[in-house]
Specification:
two-stranded parallel sheet, 6 helices, mainly alpha, disordered C terminus, 2 strands
Length: about 170
């Protein structure tokens, strides 16, 4: 088994490095081989989603799963899968749909399993070993939504109500 770090969606760069460093450290402890690039390809992700922000997850999944499938096929692996299937916050049906299409296009099987069953144990173990746990999916839009910087909305997601009569948006 190999791991792949391909996350052109992650923003800002320091968050990208933090996640890569956490994975590298964990992989070293567990003896897991990681395939990855040191290139930070945020521009590639942004070209896919700009002006299509409401569909950003679809484009992000397609970009990342297509890359994983190409690497798996080139490496003559039995199949490819994704750690996105571990998250309770990801769109599993959409991931599966896209991955199955990519599998047909690339000519390599997609291994589907709902890894969310291990969520609680994973959280517990990651905290025990002091692993960095990211607070948002990684993309600039998710960061905005996570920290409440959505234009016209309060941090709780409700529409902004001006408390200052001089405030003009």
């Amino acid at each position: 088994m190999y791991g792949l770090f391909y996350n052109p969606n992650i923003h800002p760069y320091l968050e990208y490095r933090r996640r890569l460093d956490a994975l590298t450290s964990y992989a070293d402890q567990e003896g897991l081989t990681i395939i990855g690039e040191d290139a930070y390809s945020l521009d590639l992700f942004l070209r896919q989603v700009v002006f299509r922000e409401e569909e950003r997850c679809r484009y992000c999944y397609l970009l990342r799963l297509s890359h994983a499938a190409r690497i798996a096929k080139k490496g003559r692996f039995d199949a490819f899968t994704t750690t996105l299937l571990y998250s309770r916050y990801q769109k599993h049906d959409l991931i599966r749909e896209i991955a199955l299409d990519v599998a047909v296009t690339q000519g390599i099987p997609f291994f589907y399993r709902d890894f969310r069953v291990g969520w609680s144990e994973g959280v517990r173990v990651s905290k025990e070993i002091g692993m960095y746990r990211q607070p948002y999916c990684g993309c600039i839009y998710s960061e905005r939504d996570r920290y409440g910087c959505n234009p016209g909305k309060e941090a709780d997601g409700k529409p902004y109500r001006s408390r200052d009569r001089n405030f003009d948006r």
